[in-house]
TrEMBL record:
Pfam family, one: Methyltransf_23
Keywords: Membrane, Transmembrane, Transmembrane helix
Transmembrane segments annotated in the record for this chain: 267-296
Gene3D superfamilies, alphabetized: Vaccinia Virus protein VP39
Entry keyword Membrane: yes
Keyword tRNA processing among UniProt keywords: no
Taxonomic source organism: Candidatus Roizmanbacteria bacterium RIFCSPLOWO2_01_FULL_37_12
UniProt protein name: Methyltransferase
Amino acid sequence: MICHLCKSNVHKVHKVVKKVKIYECLDCLLDFVDQVVSFKSRSDKDDTNGLYNFAAYKIKEKKLRKTFAKLTDIIVKYKKSGRVLDVGAGYGLFSSILHKKGNFLIETIEPNTDLYYLQNIPHTNNKKTLEDYLKWTNQRDRAILSKHDRSKRYDIIILMDLIEHLRNPMQSLKKLRELLTYDGILVIQTPNYMSLMARICRDWAWWMIEDHKFFFTVKSLQKILNKTRFKTEYFLTYEDWYDFKKNLDGNFAGIKNNYLRKLTKGIFFIFFAPFYYMFRQVIWGLGYGGLMFVIAKKK
């Protein structure tokens, strides 16, 4: 198979999840699946961490609000107003928090879920996939979209946990670049498969071959931004301790004796938790956080 990013044919099978092979490009460190095989592996019973279950999402709401508040604080350092396009907005929580921190006009692309958190906020939703939206936008604006027509462009385009789902992320980023104002920003968050979490957790939650077609590292994410003519303004890796701990719990699932499993987990966390809290800023700074958060501008 050919790497979608650097076109190299030098790769290996990095991991097998539910009988689906995940290939790793040895040149740019992009991981990817055979999309046809991955699609055929889907089951109606597959659960993607409650991501598309509103009841499960509500349970996580307090934690998500805290995280999103920190991330939106970073965004408003670069843009305090303008048109926002939130791609794959989910239930609209991220955009609702951003909206409160500036003078923003919110537009979303969300084909699957109701925008619960935006119901009292003026917004426009495009109930399409990103691929369909980009085709429609190209046809609609081909004659009128120009470098000087800001009314047809966005000041912020947000891809929160979205780029890994796209069939052709490089092509999508190129087209999204055309929809940004000259000083607009692109915001991306995506899992980091070379994170400490991914390395030490037996069943890393983001090996979601049902939904994820690509898996990025710091190197491969920077490379795709560079190839699509973006320059990085801000780069952060981080993760939530609750998510880290939940992933680590899977390491002890093989211990059948309930008492022994609890004892082993307890001993492990007594030593690991202090180490993690002491060094996590260093770990994140070295690029080993579980999530990558990027703000980029046009070159």
